[in-house]
Amino acid sequence: MSQTAGRTGPRKAPTMSDVAQLAGVSHQTVSRVLSDHPNVRESTRADVLRAIGQLGYRRNSSARALVTRRTLTLGVVACNPTLFGPSSTLFGLEEAARDEGYMVSAVTLRRYSAAALNEAIDHLSDWGVEGIVVIVPHREAVTALSELRLPFPVVTVEGGHSLPIPVVSVDQWLGARMATSHLLAAGHRTVWHVAGPPNWLEAEARADGWRSVLEEAGAVVPPPIQGDWTPLSGYRAGQELAGRVTAGAAGRGSPEVTAVFVANDQMALGVLRAFREAGLSVPGHVAIAGFDDIPEAEFFTPPLTTVRQDFTALGQASIRLLISRLGSGTTEDDDERVVIEPRLIVRGSSTLS
Asked: What's residue 121's pLDDT?
């Protein structure tokens, strides 16, 4: 069967020479425009940009890297990216990098260890990244990172650590204090806490903030109930707390459970279900506050009071700090800290309308 007349093969991608010919300028002039060189007349620049748009020319990043020794690629190492906090942080980093003209190459790990970090960094080095951001959510990540010598600038996110490495973080301790203070101000004698998993730096900071407010107020500090960030662990904690509410109403519990600060919103969802199944109203019997302000939080029943983290600001600050280190050409350690304040979002789970 013969081919249909007039059918053509794949269209050849336009080159810089094609742009130069259409614009009526030299190859070098096109290169200067693409590099944003100041010594180009505005009329000439406009002609070149018009030709680029007309042809649909896209600059070859590999060729550019060979000439400039710049890949404009940043690396990110993240763990547990399925959780809301790490995944939102990763998205914020990628968005901020694009805004600054960089691509992101990400490596996600099931678990942090010195060996896993080494392998991730080797992988990113092979891709030619200019610097990396490491999301370090728990203590074993800090330990692993402290054992490495890194060949390019590094910034950590949500570190909460004492390493001499730049870190950008949301003030988890302050956010927990906001939530706990809000519940005490509503008239509760104390506030119970459903904590995040052990060795997570954010969980530790949130528990410390909760405890510090109770101690300053002279309130009883109940034993925290351990969770693992999942709704199921929150549900089980809620069942335990519901039992304590019942015991307290019968005069067998101390201190009484009337307010709960939950270390993240997913666990708070589980607590809400356990309370509902036990016949407890929120906030009528028990007031609840969470942490993160996930998109679904305002649609919980009732809408959840929570602490909002600005992941966009977190990503922007992290990328800008890394780029500033790239600009200075240093890989030396330092202890620069950028701390972003959270916001308390008050909704129906903690206040009677």
From this structure: 84
Which two tokens mark 237? Answer: 């904690």
pLDDT in tens, 127-177: 888 889 988 888 877 878 877 777 788 898 876 667 778 889 999 999 999
The Cα 295–Cα 93 span in angstroms is 19
Query: pLDDT tens across 207-258, in order?
Result: 999 999 999 999 999 999 999 999 999 999 999 999 988 665 545 545 789 9
Count H helices, E strands: the chain? 12, 12
Select the more confidently predicted residue: 175 or 124: 175
- Encoded tokens for 201: 């730096």
* Other residues' Cβ atoms within 10 Å of the Cβ of residue 126: 9
Q: Which 3-state string (H, E, C) describes 22-83? A: HHCCCHHHHHHHHCCCCCCCHHHHHHHHHHHHHHCCCCCHHHHHHHHCCCCEEEEEEECCCC
Q: Quick count: other Cβ atoms within 10 Å of Cβ 331?
A: 14
Interior angle at CA 118, CA 114 and CA 120, nearest 5: 120
Is residue 321 helix, strand or coil?
helix
Nearest-5° Cα angle at 223, 219 to 229: 115
Give the Cα separation of 179 and 264 in Å (integer). 12
Q: What are the pLDDT digits (tens) for 303-352?
A: 999 999 998 899 889 999 998 888 766 555 567 889 999 999 999 999 87
Q: Look up residue 144 and give its two tokens.
A: 């692993």
Question: Going by DSSP bridges, is the β-strand pair 167-170/154-157 parallel, antiparallel, or unpaired?
Answer: parallel
Q: What is the DSSP string of 111-126?
A: S--HHHHHHHHHHHHH
304: helix, strand or coil: coil
Q: Which of 187, 138, 170, 110 is nearest to 291 (CA)?
A: 170
CB 263 within 8 A of CB 206: yes
Kindly report the number of other CB atoms within 10 A of residue 217's CB atom.
15
* ∠ Cα 314 318 321 (to 5°): 140
Q: How many whole angstroms separate alpha carbon 214 and alpha carbon 221? A: 6
